[in-house]
C-alpha cells in the first residue's frame, strides 16, 4: 500500500515537472537540458528523461543538433482543439474578421487568466506585412494595454486578485507598484472639465458610439478630400510619428480613406439630426466650455463642423 502511494506521488510529480518544462519553453522560446534542470531544481538526467517523453509525444522538438529544445507542433494540435471550442473564439470570429478587414489591422482576442492575460485568437489584417504573433502568449496584466483594459473595470477585490505576484519591470514604462497601477486606472476620471477623445477612425463607427455613449457629444469635422489631403501633407504627411499613418502606404490609399470617412459622417448625418456649427465660438457655446480668444471661422478653412448630442 505504501509503495503504491509513493509511485502515484512520483507520477504526479513527473507530470507537474513536465508541464513546468512546457511553461518554461513558452516563456523562453528555447532552452537546453542543463538550463531546464536548474529551473526545476532536479538532476540533469531527470530533466533529460522528461524531455525525451515530451519529445516522443511531439510536445517539444529539438532545435537542430545544438541540444536545445522548443515547443513542438503537437501543442498546436491540442491548442486548436481548445480554441475552436472556446466561446470567446467561436462567438467572436466573424466580428474579428470583419474588423480586421475594415481597419486593415491585426485583431487579437484575449481573456483574463487569473493574474495574466492569455491571447486565444488572432486575425491578421490585410495591410499587415510583418507582425508578431500573440496567439498563445501569456503576459502579466500590469504591463500591457490589454491587461489594463481587462482589469480596470473589475470590482476592487477582483482587481487586487489580478495583480502580479512580482512587479517586474518588463519594459521602460512598466508599472512597478500597486499604487501606481491604481493611479493609472483613475486617470480617465481624475480632474475636472470635459475629456476629449478624437480619432479619424471614429467616422466609421458613429452609430455605435452614439448608442454606447448616448450622453456624450460627438463633434464631426468634414473637409473635402483634396483640402484634407493638402492639410495633412503640410502637417508632415507620412513623417508624422503619431498617429502612425504607415498603414495607408501611399497618397492614393490615404485619399480613399478620407473619402470613406467623409461618407461615414454623411451617412450618420442622414439619420441623426445634428447642429451645424460655423465657428469655434458657436461650438464652444453649444458644448458649454470656454473658448479661445481667437475665433476660428470654419468655413474659411473649408471645414464643415457638426455637433450631435442626444
Tally the helices: 13
Count of domains: 3
The separation of the N and C termini measures: 75 Å
Major beta-sheet overview: 3 strands, antiparallel
Looking at how many chains there are and whether they match, the oligomeric state comes to: single chain
- Mean pLDDT, as a whole number? 82
Instruction: Tell me roughly what share of residues is in helical segments.
Output: 40-55%
Which band does the percent of strand residues land in?
A: 5-15%
**Basic shape:** elongated
Strand order across the biggest sheet? 1-3-2
Integer-rounded radius of gyration: 27 Å
Structural class comes to alpha+beta
Tell me about this structure:
The structure is a single chain. The chain has 310 residues and is an alpha+beta fold. It folds into three domains: 2-72, Winged helix-like DNA-binding domain superfamily/Winged helix DNA-binding domain (Arc Repressor Mutant, subunit A, Orthogonal Bundle), CATH 1.10.10.10; 76-189, GAF domain (Beta-Lactamase, 2-Layer Sandwich); 200-308, no CATH class. 47% of the residues lie in helices and 14% in strands. It is built from 13 helices and nine strands. The protein has helices spanning 2-28, 33-40, 44-56, 74-85, 87-90, 93-103, 145-152, 156-161, 178-186, 206-212, 225-235, 251-271, 280-287, and strands at 31-32, 60-63, 68-71, 107-113, 116-123, 138-140, 218-223, 275-276, 303-308. It has a three-stranded antiparallel beta sheet with strand order 1-3-2. A three-stranded antiparallel beta sheet has the order 4-5-6. A three-stranded antiparallel beta sheet has the order 7-9-8. Strand 4 (107-113) and strand 5 form a beta hairpin. The longest helix is centred in the first third of the chain and has 27 residues, at 2-28. The protein starts with a helix and ends with a strand.
Amino acid at each position: 500500500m505504501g509503495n503504491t502511494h509513493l509511485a502515484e506521488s512520483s507520477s504526479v510529480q513527473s507530470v507537474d515537472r513536465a508541464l513546468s518544462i512546457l511553461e518554461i519553453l513558452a516563456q523562453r522560446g528555447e532552452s537546453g537540458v542543463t538550463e531546464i534542470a536548474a529551473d526545476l531544481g532536479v538532476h540533469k538526467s531527470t530533466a533529460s528523461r522528461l524531455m525525451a517523453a515530451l519529445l516522443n509525444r511531439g510536445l517539444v522538438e529539438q532545435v537542430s543538433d545544438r541540444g536545445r529544445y522548443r515547443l513542438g507542433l503537437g501543442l498546436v494540435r491540442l491548442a486548436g482543439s481548445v480554441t475552436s471550442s472556446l466561446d470567446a473564439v467561436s462567438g467572436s470570429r466573424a466580428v474579428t474578421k470583419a474588423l480586421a478587414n475594415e481597419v486593415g489591422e491585426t485583431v487579437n482576442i484575449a481573456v483574463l487568466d487569473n493574474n495574466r492575460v492569455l491571447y486565444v485568437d488572432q486575425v491578421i489584417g490585410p495591410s499587415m506585412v510583418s507582425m508578431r504573433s500573440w496567439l498563445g502568449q501569456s503576459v502579466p496584466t500590469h504591463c500591457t494595454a490589454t491587461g489594463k483594459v481587462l482589469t480596470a473595470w473589475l470590482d476592487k477585490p477582483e482587481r487586487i486578485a489580478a495583480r502580479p505576484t512580482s512587479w517586474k519591470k518588463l519594459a521602460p514604462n512598466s508599472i512597478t507598484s500597486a499604487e501606481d497601477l491604481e493611479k493609472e486606472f483613475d486617470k480617465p476620471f481624475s480632474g475636472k472639465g470635459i475629456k476629449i477623445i478624437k480619432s479619424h477612425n471614429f467616422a466609421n463607427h458613429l452609430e455605435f458610439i452614439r448608442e454606447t455613449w448616448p450622453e456624450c457629444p460627438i463633434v464631426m469635422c468634414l473637409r473635402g478630400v483634396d483640402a484634407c489631403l493638402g492639410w495633412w501633407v503640410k502637417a508632415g504627411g507620412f513623417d508624422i510619428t503619431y498617429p502612425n499613418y504607415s498603414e495607408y502606404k501611399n497618397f492614393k490609399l490615404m485619399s480613399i480613406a478620407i473619402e470613406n470617412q467623409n461618407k461615414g459622417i454623411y451617412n450618420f448625418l442622414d439619420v441623426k439630426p445634428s447642429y451645424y456649427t460655423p465657428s469655434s465660438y458657436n461650438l464652444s457655446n453649444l458644448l458649454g466650455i470656454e473658448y479661445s480668444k481667437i475665433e476660428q471661422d470654419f468655413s474659411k478653412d473649408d471645414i464643415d463642423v457638426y455637433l450631435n448630442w442626444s
